[in-house]
Amino acid sequence: MPSKDTDTxxxxxxxxIVETVTRLMVPFIQLFALYVxxxxxxxxxxxxxxxxxxxxxxxxxxxxxxxxKAGNRFSERANIVLFSTGVYLYAxxxxxxxxxxxxxxxxxxxxxxxxxxxxxxxRALGMDLVEVGIGITVMAVITSIFFNLVWKRExxxxxxxxxxx
Amino acid sequence: xNQLSVAALVFVLFLGGLFVYVAEDIPxxxxxxxxxxxxxxxxxxxxxxxxxxxxxxxxxxxxxxKIGAVGLPLPSGVAKLKEGEWEAVIIPEETKxxxxxxxxxxxxxxxxxxxxxxxxxxxxxxxxxxxxxxTEVPNMVTYILADYRSYDTLGETTVIFxxxxxxxxxxxxxxxxxx
Lengths: 165, 179
Prior knowledge:
The structure holds two protein chains of two kinds.
Chain A lengths: L1 H4 L10 H23 L8 H19 L1 H7 L2 H25 L18 H46 L1
Chain B lengths: L2 H23 L14 E7 L4 H5 L5 H10 L6 E6 L2 E6 L13 E9 L2 E6 L2 H13 L4 H9 L1 H22 L8
Antiparallel strand pairs in B: 1-5, 2-3, 3-4, 4-5
Helix pairs in contact in B: 4-5, 5-6
């Protein structure tokens, strides 16, 4: 009977402790990831690290609740959109520098984006925007790789069982 | 072609065009006007009587004293670039442990009016000492990664994006979900 003992979100006796702790931990992990991304300018951290921490919260969710429930929560379609959103955010911030300075500034010279009145603070804020872009891309890619590997394994296991039957 | 393919094609063309612009925009290697290579001015001093010494490859004692007062290593030789411009080099001693045992270009000296302006060739100096002042970000790793080397980081992000797309193409589940 394939549906009873596979880890597809319905069967397989999972522990209530694991589920409860996961439910408690996931928001805090995601909050910590956002903290790491935003504080990349002031302390240790940055887009790459924060994105991986954010993705690890989805990994924990899959471990506790199974791939079907996680896939419903965080659909593949949204994931694919987020993939490119980060890169476009990064490239778009660079493009804004050219547009706002009428072609005088170089690509990714953040000081020309008129966010504040100070050239240096514009650079700091531009860096933050870029870090957010990096974080979105890294989070979506790591999550997508993990989800796809899990789906692959699930499909193979079910195929094997059906072959035995 | 469905709607999604058209949208994807438009975005790819846009991003491709942007990257071509970027590749044209990158300063040539060693361009003295590019941000990381621009010299950092250390101090200026009276030029009377020093120009002849510099032209003959001798470092005046007063210049040495000023550089020593700033706290930087003293130059061991001077070379004339053109009229009114010199570069001072440091030739490391054999006995000391040096990772780059060749002569290092350290100081750039230019004559402005009747003053000598002393600059430093400045990749390290700019990153380490001017970065906080120029970007208002206290974290050195972040401002080097996301500001001075942001072209590089854009490439890294694109590499991760490409890895994700490749995994998606290879492993994306086809057919129905396991119920």
